[in-house]
Amino acid sequence: MSDNCFIDTNILVYCYTNDEPVKQQKALDIANNPDLQNGQVIQNSLTIINPFK
Q1: Per the confidence metrics, is the pTM higher than 0.70?
Q2: Of the four listed, 18, 32, 40, 46, which is most buried by Cβ atoms within 10 Å?
Q3: What long-range pairs does 14-19 form, CB within 8 A, spacing at least 24?
Q4: Using one digit for the tens of pLDDT, what is the confidence trace for 12-28?
């Protein structure tokens, strides 16, 4: 069985911001979830936000 997963790009933006350390840590915890790292989810989201880095 295949599960669909969605991660909002705001979570990835908070991974890169230093202005709100509590939100940054929560976002990093979500992004470092092993269930998300093996899929296309992170790659697709990073493709969207990389031009804004």
Answers
A1: no
A2: 46
A3: 16/49, 16/53
A4: 889 888 999 999 999 98
